[in-house]
Design a protein that fits this description.
single chain, 233 residues, mainly alpha, 8 helices, globular
Length: 233
Amino acid sequence: MTLLAVAAAVSLALVLGALWALYGRLGDRTEGFILAAGGGALMFSAVLELIVPAQQFISLTATGLTLMIGAGTFSLIDYLIDKRWGDEGGVGFLAAATLDGVPENLALGVALIGAGFWDVAGLAGAIFLSNVPEGASGAKGMRAIGWPRGRILAIWLGTALFLVVAAVAGNLLFRNAPQEYLVLMRVFAGGAIIAALATEIFPKAYRRDHQMAGIATALGLLAALVLIHSMAD
């Protein structure tokens, strides 16, 4: 029950972002600022909750190799998506958001194995913060090329459902896996998330909000730090 609630919450953030873009007002600078803030929070949580703890179970060499495989896998698939659809078309927006979301939600599902909500609250909160602007940015781009609102909203609802399934799959498929495999899965997902931030989130945030994107990134990281610190207390 906790798994479904957490997965649904972070995935439906995409829909909230899409609703904001379709029926609210979302200027370029606001879009860039929240993209950067969400990215900063996610970067901090990915490193602190997925990558750093691996050192307790596997070697630094294994951590580094797995991290690079995760980043390389994401980068290759992202390259193929850009080559096929480009980074400005509606399908490209959707493919990129799905590609970003799969490793995040898989990692969330794996992290919830034997854990409660508060054990992964930092990671879940960071994914939520990054999903809202990503859904908003994608829906805004689709609307700009003439897609109707109803179609756009249905697509993002479907994407959110797909990512819930990804989280559940990660949890169920690896529930009985040895601890070392779970750690490798988290590090792989962490590498993919870092690559997604570097290639998708931060460049787009800078194009929208220029130097303020750096301030927003630091604020997002600080928000994740405060959240994790408050849970530790």
